DNA sequence: CGGGCGATTGACGGTCATCAAGCTGTGTGG
DNA sequence: CCACACAGCTTGATGACCGTCAATCGCCCG
């Protein structure tokens, strides 16, 4: 696959950012925003384009503005575990290690702000507001990771899929308007690698849920026809 | 089971704390340490004694000083997933939610410092040093959680057990002197619930690893007789 | 010595992975 | 405009891995 270079676009001011209220940037006042903007770049990534890879030296951190990114780890033999999907407002770069411990790439088209890590750290260093906001994000991520461990370790295939659909829907609802159809921009393979299943099992489980009247499979997503039952299956 | 009350002990000054250099407290100077000490309490927990439970209101956060705690989540039907073991130096209370999202209890005898969360937050609020240290801890926890997701989602039983033993050994090595025998204070059931397996599978896998000359099972732990092979099995 | 708990071992079966074939929709070129 | 190719998804057949159920062992402690 040809590695394409991310396109850059205008230096759109942070003060106009549409995801600011959901992002770490909400902790910053106008002045700080302007300073942050002075060393940030807005980048575009194409579908499946890598953003960074495991073991690479960390040079930047990112705010997702539009689109979805998958975050994953690979085992030497090629097995893949997706550890999360990053949505608009999410911050990537909590890690303090000097090398990336995960890889990230764009699922569909993605727009993200990039900060040079060194500059960002210096910027954040003496801003307790921002540091606390970052803590908050880290804590939320950690809680999500713990929930995912339960899913991976203790839930059946059907519970995994139902749980994923419910959780995904809730996440989308938090950042945008509720819609009848829940879009699933990622592939079945992505879902499988997120849930610790195979693509076949995911596909079969979708079909089963549809047969049971819990969901309806539509182009590019699903319609949750019986949310109550889905939540029951998710065994919250 | 009778719920026993944690015993309290002397207000040992933080300045003498043996785990300080590994704990978040390393970010504090003498003055700050004294202030922190003024609202901390050292508590003892007995084996299997609960420290806090999922859904309870969060009132405190903790530093582990001695012993091991298990952190876990329960599903309504009783299935349990252990999301981590906390060792001396670990900080518990990164979560920002007002209710605990996990439960914690002592594996063996445990000594921990408790801080009233509200006071601790106020204390940390304007100390960038401490906030950054907490960030660092959160990032490390998150990286660990991601590694655990790979284990849970993509590794076989044998890989899980080998990986657990290697990682556990490394963690112990970081906080104390290396020993020939790697102690395993937690039960087989705990290990199973940590690895997303059943106790029988864990037991069988231990036996297999011993037959294969990778480990030797001893009272209260194991001896890693072939670390290289264990690491290969762990498929880092 | 006997009770009890944790760990081990064995027999069996279910869930989900594997392997393989067919399907669907989209884009491409004649 | 239709045939074709291709990629992603679905469906089917089979079997392995690990869960379940059950019995036994070993050890500690009363």
Textual characterization of the structure:
2 copies of one chain form a homodimer. With 236 residues, chain A is an alpha+beta fold. Chain A has 2 domains: 8-144, Jelly Rolls; 157-234, Winged helix-like DNA-binding domain superfamily/Winged helix DNA-binding domain (Arc Repressor Mutant, subunit A, Orthogonal Bundle). Chain A is 39% helix and 23% strand. Chain A has 7 helices and 12 strands. In chain A, the strands form 3 sheets. A 5-stranded antiparallel beta sheet of chain A has the order 1-2-9-4-7. In chain A, helix 4 (157-175) packs across helix 6, helix 4 (157-175) crosses helix 7 (227-234) and helix 5 (188-195) packs across helix 6. The longest helix of chain A has 27 residues, at 128-154. The relative contact order of chain A is 0.13. The model of chain A is unreliable at 1-5 (pLDDT under 50). Chain A binds chain B through residues 73, 75-77, 79-81, 83, 94-97, 101-102, 125-128, 131-132, 134-136, 138-143, 145-150, 152-155, 193, 195-196, 235-236, and chain B through 73, 75-77, 79-81, 83, 94-97, 101-102, 125-128, 131-132, 134-136, 138-143, 145-150, 152-155, 193, 195-196, 235-236. The structure holds a DNA duplex (30 and 30 nucleotides).
């Amino acid at each position: 696959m040809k590695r394409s270079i991310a396109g850059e676009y205008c230096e759109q001011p942070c003060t106009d950012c549409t995801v600011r209220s959901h992002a770490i940037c909400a902790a910053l006042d106008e002045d700080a925003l302007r300073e942050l903007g002075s060393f940030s770049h807005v980048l575009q990534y194409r579908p499946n384009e890598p953003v960074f890879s495991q073991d690479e030296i960390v040079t930047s951190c990112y705010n997702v503005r539009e689109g979805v990114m998958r975050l994953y780890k690979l085992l030497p033999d090629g097995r893949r575990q997706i550890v999360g999907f990053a949505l608009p407002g999410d911050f990537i770069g909590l890690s303090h290690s000097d090398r990336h411990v995960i890889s990230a790439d764009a699922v569909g088209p993605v727009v993200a702000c990039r900060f040079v890590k060194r500059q960002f750290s210096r910027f954040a260093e003496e801003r307790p507001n921002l540091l606390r906001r970052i803590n908050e994000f880290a804590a939320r991520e950690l809680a999500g990771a713990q929930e995912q461990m339960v899913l991976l370790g203790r839930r059946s295939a059907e519970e995994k899929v139902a749980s994923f659909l419910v959780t995904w829907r809730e996440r989308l609802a938090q950042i945008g308007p509720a819609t009848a159809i829940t879009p699933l921009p990622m592939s079945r393979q992505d879902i499988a690698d997120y849930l610790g299943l195979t693509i076949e099992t995911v596909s079969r489980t979708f079909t089963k849920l549809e047969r049971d009247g819990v969901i309806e499979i539509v182009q590019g997503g699903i319609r949750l026809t019986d949310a109550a039952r889905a939540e029951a299956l998710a065994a919250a």
